[in-house]
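tool_log.txt
---
The assistant was asked to compare two proteins side by side. It first ran the structure predictor on the initial sequence, then on the second. Raw inputs and outputs are pasted verbatim so the downstream comparison step can read them without reformatting.
(1)
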Amino acid sequence: MGARSFSLDLNILNSFNQHGLDDLKNAKLMNRVDSKFLLPMAQLPLLLKDLKPHCSLLNINGNLLAQYENVYYDTPEFDFYHQHHNGKLNRVKVRRRCYADHDLAFLNLKLNLINHAPKKPELKLSPTMKLSSLQPLRRSSACRNLGH
């Protein structure tokens, strides 16, 4: 079966309530639970319509969509992945996030410790900084474009 083409009109995003970066100063974004779902693209307009009364979109310089790429780092034996998958309570995750639209990159170290909220110290990276001593699980095009 061949791939179907699908175009999506994202103009509905312009009708959402919006907030800027200054509004995030008092937000507690580091203490949250994320749930991820797969959704057929054809259902996205209906979902956005249902979410509109309950959501506000971050507007950065007129942009409501942000392009970023993550590169996760692990040991050659994938210890970090296996610890997470097996529910180990004391574990670590190392990630480099590149914001292609803003020429920014951060190295995040997420520590999940028993009886403590997850800690996520981060280090701002220069877009030209190389992390050759670490082994990425995958390379992303946006990070390559930033010189990583």
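(2)
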Amino acid sequence: MESFPSLVFISFVMLALIYSPAAAAAGGGGSNGTTVFDVLPQFGLPAGLLPDAVASYSLDEDGGFTVELDRPSCYVQFDSNLVYYERRITGTLKIGSIRNLEGVQVQRLFLWLGVDEIKVDLPPSDYIYFQVGWISKRLSIEDFREVHSCQDRAAYRDQIGLVWMMIMGDPFSSLVDHFLSFSTSP
């Protein structure tokens, strides 16, 4: 039977191997086969925070991480929230949170707002929190347990463009005119 200090040392070495920058490789998997989708739950976060288009990731000893997608842009629908992922996503991974997040935006009305932080309750609850500036949004964590497929802009063109058309107008048929015709009809 091994002594307690030996087990602690072996555990530390294994964690250092898993979280070293050398663990980053193409295909989203580390040299030991670990993917970013395996790493997120080890920090108490759901795997579905990132789309399935991860080409590679790196994680340094202080929690700084970089995720590279295999395409220039990616859209994912989470319940009523449309999220945009840039090709490169960076942040600081801590137990229960991702801070200093860059490369992730959420659509609110006609604006795209950068998500600054994502966090979960410790101990875990049924909610996840997204910080956008000084606004915090609480969502069900169930929407983020499964990894979602990346879609291109064309898949969400109608949803993205609908609000734009309402504000700026459409040269072919304005939604504003359409609503006004309803209100003036007998």
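---
observation on (2): The chain has four helices and eight strands. Residues 1-27, 163-186 have pLDDT under 50 and may be disordered.
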